């Protein structure tokens, strides 16, 4: 399949470029980046520092190159991702989107677009994180109603959105298992005095140094607690998952897919 990579110089985009370029089932045909980037016009392999020419070039005009691809892999910014999504809709191309921080209005638009083209949205493309979602669902259904639930997430100092998209997905999984809406029970940080609100899900976001990604969900009971944790030592697991998602999405019918669909998790 032919792959177009959005934001190839980014932290995820560069890893995805390296991994996709080595896969026998993928050919990178182009990259796209916002206007003004100093690597526009360069070979994508040289732009991301692989030291290898891939005979695919980076453009700042997605509409001029989109017809070359089958699937777009996009890990950029919310604003640029929406541009990518609209271009994909117009050109009838599939999109893997791992960008986080979308507003409710933006995500509603993504859902609307997915009625016409295949879209796989994933705040986290790690296989293990998506298995963790299933474990959280089981824990919430079993002990959620008698637990104090806290979510602690850590990322590097450059991450722009807080809480992380992954931690929000974790909260949504737990809230659904409790027949609740996350927006009704989430508490983001704490200060002042007062008892903990029963039935709430507490969020705590840490940003420091080059921490890659860490998420812990704690189910606290009297006399004991359960912690379910995922640590990523680097970003390769997410990039591998993004490529697997693109392979899954190739030739799929329109719809909004998740990594659960890729892994066959019910």
From TrEMBL:
It is found in: Cytoplasm. Its main location: cytoplasm. Keywords: Amino-acid biosynthesis, Cytoplasm, Diaminopimelate biosynthesis, Lysine biosynthesis, NAD, NADP, Oxidoreductase. Its EC number is 1.17.1.8. It is an enzyme of class 1 (oxidoreductase). Residues 129-263 form the Dihydrodipicolinate reductase C-terminal domain. It catalyses: (S)-2,3,4,5-tetrahydrodipicolinate + NADP(+) + H2O = (2S,4S)-4-hydroxy-2,3,4,5-tetrahydrodipicolinate + NADPH + H(+); (S)-2,3,4,5-tetrahydrodipicolinate + NAD(+) + H2O = (2S,4S)-4-hydroxy-2,3,4,5-tetrahydrodipicolinate + NADH + H(+). (S)-2,3,4,5-tetrahydrodipicolinate binds at residues 165-166. NADP(+) binds at residue 53. Pathway: Amino-acid biosynthesis; L-lysine biosynthesis via DAP pathway; (S)-tetrahydrodipicolinate from L-aspartate: step 4/4. The keyword Nuclease does not apply. The active site is at residues 155, 159. The keyword Oxidoreductase applies. It holds the Pfam family DapB_C. Residues 1-124 form the Dihydrodipicolinate reductase N-terminal domain. PROSITE patterns: DAPB. GO terms for molecular function: 4-hydroxy-tetrahydrodipicolinate reductase. Gene3D superfamilies: Dihydrodipicolinate Reductase, domain 2 (3.30.360.10), NAD(P)-binding Rossmann-like Domain (3.40.50.720). Homotetramer. NCBIfam families: dapB (TIGR00036). Catalyzes the conversion of 4-hydroxy-tetrahydrodipicolinate (HTPA) to tetrahydrodipicolinate. HAMAP family: DapB (MF_00102). Belongs to the DapB family. This is 4-hydroxy-tetrahydrodipicolinate reductase. The gene is dapB.
